Amino acid sequence: MAEFPKARDFFESSRAAVGDHELRRKLESASARHLEHFAEVKAEFPPYDDERDAARRIKTDAIAHLDELLIELASKLEARGCKVFFAEDAAQARGYIVELARAKGAKKVVKGKSMTTEEIELNCALERAGIDAVETDLGEYIVQLRGERPSHILTPAIHLSKEDIGQLFTDKFGIAYTAEPEKLTAEARSRLRAIFLNADFGVTGVNFAIAETGTLVIVENEGNGRMSSTMPKTFVAVMGIEKVIARLEDLSHFLEILARTATGQKLTTYTSFITGPRREGELDGPAEMHVVILDNGRSSMLADPVLREALNCIRCGACLNVCPIYRRIGGHAYRSVYPGPIGSIVSPNLFGSAAGYLPFASTLCGACKDICPVKIDIPRILLHLRWKESAGGHALRWPRAIARARRGARRFAKMARHPRTVRVLGRIAAMVLKPFAHNGYLRRMPGPFGNWTKYRDFPRPRPHKRPAPEVERPPS
Amino acid sequence: MAEIHKIIASIKDALGAGARSNSHAAAASVAVPVAPSAHRAELASTFARELEAVGGRFLGILTPAEATNRIVTLAGEIGARTVALGQGVMSDMDAIGEALERADCRIVRTIPVADTERAAMRERVANADLGIAEADFAIASTGTLAVVSTGDRPSSLTLLPPASLVIVQIDRVMANLAEVLAELGAGGVAANRLTLITGPSRTADIEKRIVLGVHGPKSIHAIVVWPRND
Hints:
Number of strands of chain A: 12
Low-confidence stretches of chain B: 24-35
Number of helices of chain A: 21
Oligomer: heterodimer
Helix content of chain B: 25-40%
Distance between the termini of chain B: 58 Å
Low-confidence stretches of chain A: none
CATH class of the domain at 7-160 and 200-299 in chain A: Alpha Beta
CATH architecture of chain B: 3-Layer(aba) Sandwich
Number of domains of chain B: 1
CATH class of chain B: Alpha Beta
Shape of chain B: globular
Number of helices of chain B: 7
Shape of chain A: globular
Mean pLDDT of chain A: 90
CATH architecture of the domain at 7-160 and 200-299 in chain A: 3-Layer(aba) Sandwich
Strand order of the largest sheet of chain B: 1-12-7-4-2-3
Largest sheet of chain B: 6 strands, parallel
Largest interface: A-B, 96 and 78 residues
CATH superfamily of the domain at 7-160 and 200-299 in chain A: NagB/RpiA/CoA transferase-like
Largest sheet of chain A: 6 strands, parallel
Number of strands of chain B: 12
Helix content of chain A: 40-55%
Radius of gyration of chain B: 21 Å
């Protein structure tokens, strides 16, 4: 796997993204629209909160019995003629799929939308083996044409305008320029339709796997999942170990909330229940079906009692849409396949300590926790990861900073015991700093205080008065 | 295989040897309330409203004979020259096929195929202007059609043609998803591929604007039919 980007890269990319007003406009309008839809469907569905509790309970329970459920799932799938492969890490998973595609003589692989295959960087591996990987979800198709990664786990091309996409299609296909989403979609449809009808190898992700029945459930709107799982001769489903739930009756609780939270729909357009390869005489379905069940760091999350909760995630993407950080910097700045609040939890566990800076990219405002359909306490887990990151691992950087912070806090605590000293110092500071302030804020402070103003303005101290009323902040 | 043991072992380790909540085994399965038949018409009208809300078109609650006529009219409306038709669940699809043929439509009947005929059959279904299928169930609260696919009722019928028509028996319109899953049962779901269809294929990938007909049909029409012996 490519080396995970450094924290420095994140600072650079996020700073650049914050300055990109066009990107910000797109993200804001997309998020606003999402929240509007969500509010509507939530209002007309009174049991929403009960369903959230039920979904959380079921998922927590399934995670607590993961070993048993996986064994049950695998045996049910095998009984129905599927080949099941447990992959410890990304390399094993993509190795298996590439080997299989090669053995089948596949020249082209059609892919339904799947974050897990992004995680294992399947496309790169296929291409290195001389096999074409074609993304068929419209958004994924667009970002693939641009040679980019998705910037949102649900709407991969959220960072692009229709004009960008129109230009892209003109450049790539030589068609007359149009920025009409209908025409662009029709163009993609006809191109991909031809590929689908001749596809001999398909790969998709999985949203839920029902242990009791050995059924894989795929949720989508476009039909790319249906196409990728029914047209090719060989079909591979890739799922993380945490996707398994115990019973069929558990499923409706998730489906009732997933689409509502994710896209503001009551149910997604297509929900496919797949139990195995096609049988004698059937027109649709693969002749051969493989299921790759991926660990890749998930069992280490399971081992940590605080982190374990994050395995409840059903990848609805809502926490991205409400996150003040995501809404300002977009998905690419995170430099991880999984951006946003949940991405900041998952990434360090999937990609190792190199992604350890991500839990710090949060204001801990809690909007993610409030919207999460399975009520994952994201801020708590982020704090836990910050603590982990500070305590261990990077012996070079964080402990020294922590020690400094502690020393500072102790000194302040000592001083704060003498109110008069605080008042006098405050008055002096107010006097000294006054000439440097603009509109009540300091943009730069000297010495160690500069660490504060590096990233935000400091309100000018004003003793003897109540805190200054909120004034319009100068753009920093 | 070695990997499964390794992974299951590491999961076991991670979960710890400590006591687990036993709710997994103990969780009671809640009986799903099934609406009495008097509510069927009400459910059907809720279904109609929800289907239209997601961009589908509801053609009415009709007798089998009316439904056949309505389908012929629809084929005319959308200019369908070729219609792909699968076997029914309860309905007589042959009658529909014959009526369409009398109206000069070419009919592609989906029958179980050998491996060598698969590509040709798929091509024919994909080139049809309209695909007709019968759903096993409908879900009122979401405007959803639940279609089980088998040899003579392939999933392609509701996926490949640009327009899709689905009929469903009125006593198979259920209140919600949980009821449908309960009705199908674990055995029913495990037996065949099941697809829940809620409106036409759609995307919001370009500036969150909704566009219909990405890979699946651009339009979906539904008819609820009264039982045959009415």
